[in-house]
TrEMBL record:
Residues 46-100 form the Acetyl-coenzyme A synthetase N-terminal domain. Keywords: ATP-binding, Ligase, Lipid metabolism, Nucleotide-binding. Belongs to the ATP-dependent AMP-binding enzyme family. The keyword Lipid metabolism applies. This is Acetyl-coenzyme A synthetase. It comes from Sphaeramia orbicularis (orbiculate cardinalfish). GO terms for cellular component: mitochondrion. GO terms for molecular function: acetate-CoA ligase activity; AMP binding; ATP binding. Residues 102-486 form the AMP-dependent synthetase/ligase domain.
């Protein structure tokens, strides 16, 4: 059952006849040069089919064409999903920083690699490929001189800034892994991640600046490392001019180093980075990504999902502390030799026009953001968008949560002026890059609001039933699995391969289990219905939280909502909906559905609603709330607890 309006949206109706001409004379070599040699492939549908049925051939050609190798790989893939064995491009050696920097410095040294959109609008800093390489090499030498070796793991606790990117690439250059921790996490959350990663080196800045506020990042690191005996040194860069207390452990990043740094020759399957995700239970998981496969998948998805063309300015506003920042602010765009924006601020600083003023000033061509921000901004009204010239925009992207139809329509109609395709991209930290998205497809192929729709090259999504049997028909829903390995997938959980196998490989043997539910439409398009641990079962009907939230969100007074189930003697589960209202704070009961209006929902720092917390409140299990330090605004929980008590006492 899907409650969402499924009005079809056709962007290019005027140019349709032109596109027909285009697709009739579709030039595969112009679209993807390495595909010219694929037998029988003359259009995009055939290319998709080829990428699945000739997976080795497809990925080998792409890997040879798109990456610069020190020595070639001898085996394309050696994967067994049922046993959690995933290996790509074995035998090959390469260096990721060379692929992201040196090769572009050879062809276009003065091209802008990074635009650092600093917190204060109008104070952006542009960094060319030449100077990013320079910065990376100096840092690589500093790390090397200070004893960081191949195989070590360096924790990076920095806001988005060129030095953070150079730190990531410097690790890649000398063969160390990085572990970027979102620079908004508490000292405890940081310490837990440093300990699990066994880092002896941390890189940070003296202070961060976000939304006009100064954040004491170095102090947080000081507190964190007190509980981390593994940490031997902390490198400190200066984001502001305010000095901070330096201890014996601390090293200033101003130390001058040589600008030539020999890149390490890395095996395809050496670790590139760890990235922790919270997971639905206690301990965060350190997902492990490796060199060649990850980079290849990030660069290919970046180019094709967003139709990125040379010379475009790509604006992904995710923080570098998330996988979205890794793949689409840093690795994908840089490996493609593109120009990428690093966004340090918030969507509402200094006002709700921030994104669109930035789009105008930086002439952004692709904008990639989160539904939570879109939902927030649409409530402030269209005039914040209309004030600015957004005509440079060509593609709009969405990631992180299901995007409800109201937000999708607004994004498309108001931000994109009805002309830009909106790509709702589904993927995960585990997948490394986008797996399902409306593009690439024919330029006039339909895009249905709020649907990720089409698998990317080489991706084979499947739906299974409770027993793990494949659901083969359309117009069906079930747990979403991925049936074929792909180069970008995580290889393991750091120090816990067994947990990796149990979480992703064992639930449906032979498939990679995503933890999400999805619906496959009559036409064969995929729509994500949300995390399966959030699914609600009412009288035997399984309802995705997103479906109900979509309906609630249509109410004009509601900015966004979070729906959870609670146990009910008759129905199995009833529905509780916590609604952020910009108007009021009341409680109402509507035939088994409780609505509680609150000012703020509990969200993770990346904008995901923590329904787990709401469930505990409703179950009156306040002792089981768990670690709240990764919440964006832990105070929101108090308000919800209080509101819930009031609601219960009214019943
Ligand atoms: C959810 C973010 C619906 C999903 C890249 C997934 C989405 C989790 C979408 C991964 C989308 C991400 N539509 N849900 N377009 N994109 N999700 O690891 O539940 O931070 O499993 O990676 O976000 O979140 P993560």
């Amino acid at each position: 059952m899907w409650l969402r309006c499924t009005s079809k949206c056709v962007f290019a109706s005027l140019s349709r006849s032109y596109n027909n001409v285009l697709s009739r004379s579709f030039n595969i070599a112009a679209f993807m040069p390495e595909a010219a040699g694929f037998e029988g492939v003359s259009d995009r549908a055939a290319l998709q089919e080829f990428s699945l049925s000739n997976s080795d051939h497809f990925w080998a050609a792409v890997a040879r064409h798109r990456l610069t190798w020190i020595s070639p790989f001898h085996t394309v893939q050696d994967c067994d999903l049922s046993r959690g064995r995933i290996k790509w491009f074995e035998g090959g050696k390469l260096n990721v920083s060379v692929n992201c920097l040196d090769r572009h410095v050879h062809t276009c040294p003065e091209k802008v690699a990074l635009i650092w959109e600093r917190d204060e609008p109008g104070s952006e800093v542009k960094v060319t490929y030449r100077s990013l390489l320079d910065m990376t090499c100096r840092l690589g030498n500093l790390l090397r001189r200070r004893g960081v070796k191949k195989g070590d793991c360096v924790t990076i606790y920095m806001p988005p800034c060129p030095l953070a990117v150079a730190s990531m690439l410097a690790c890649a250059r000398i063969g160390a892994a990085h572990n970027v921790v979102f620079a908004g996490f508490s000292a405890e959350a940081l310490a837990e991640r440093i300990r699990d990663a066994q880092s002896s080196t941390v890189i940070t800045v003296n202070q961060g600046v976000r939304g006009g506020r100064v954040i004491e990042l170095k102090k947080t690191v000081d507190t964190a490392v007190e509980g981390c005996p593994s940490v031997k040194q902390v490198f400190v860069a200066m984001r502001t001019e305010n000095p901070v207390v330096m201890t014996d452990r601390d090293v200033s990043m101003e130390e001058l180093e040589d600008a030539v740094c020999e890149p390490a020759a890395m095996d395809s399957e050496d670790v590139l980075f760890l990235l922790y995700t919270s997971g639905s239970t206690g301990k965060p998981k350190g997902l492990v990504h490796t060199q060649a496969g990850y980079l290849l998948y990030a660069l290919l998805t970046h180019r094709y999902v967003f139709s990125y063309h040379d010379g475009d300015v790509f604006g992904c506003v995710a923080d570098i502390g998330w996988i979205t920042g890794h793949s689409y602010s840093v690795y994908g765009p840089l490996a493609n030799g593109g120009t990428t924006v690093l966004f340090e601020s918030t969507p509402v600083y200094p006002n709700p026009g921030r994104y669109w003023e930035m789009v105008q000033r930086l002439r952004i061509n692709q904008f990639y953001g989160a539904p939570t921000a879109i939902r927030l901004l649409l409530k402030y009204g269209d005039h914040w968008v209309h004030k600015y010239d957004c005509s440079t925009l060509k593609t709009l992207g969405s990631v992180g949560e299901p995007i409800n139809t109201e937000a999708w329509e607004w994004y498309h109609r108001v931000v994109g002026d009805g002309r830009c395709p909106v790509v709702d991209t589904w993927w995960q930290t585990e997948t490394g890059g986008i797996c399902i998205a409306p593009r690439p497809s024919d330029p006039d192929a339909e895009i249905v609001p709020g649907m990720a729709m089409r698998p990317f090259f080489g991706m084979k999504p499947v739906l299974v039933d409770g027993e793990g049997k494949l659901l083969t028909s359309n117009n069906t829903s079930g747990p979403l699995c991925l049936a074929q390995p792909w180069p970008g997938m995580a290889r393991t959980i750091h120090n816990n391969h067994q947990r990796f196998i149990e979480t992703y490989c064992q639930p449906y043997p032979g498939y990679f289990f995503t933890g999400d539910g999805a619906h496959r439409s009559e036409e064969g398009y995929y729509q994500i219905t949300g995390r399966l641990d959030d699914v609600i079962n009412v009288s035997g009907h399984r309802l995705g939280t997103a479906e109900i939230e979509d309906v609630v969100n249509h109410c004009p007074a509601v900015a966004e909502s979070a729906v959870i189930g609670y146990s009910h003697d008759v129905k199995g589960q009833g529905i509780r909906s916590k609604t952020v209202s910009i108007m009021s704070f009341t409680g109402t009961q509507i035939t088994g559905v409780f609505l509680q209006f609150v000012q703020r929902l509990p969200k993770t720092r990346s904008g995901k609603i923590m329904r787990r917390v709401l469930r505990k409140v409703v179950e009156q299990d306040l002792g089981g709330l768990g670690d709240l330090s990764t919440l964006d605004d832990p105070a929101a929980v108090q308000e919800i607890v209080q509101g819930h008590q009031d609601l219960c006492s009214k019943k």
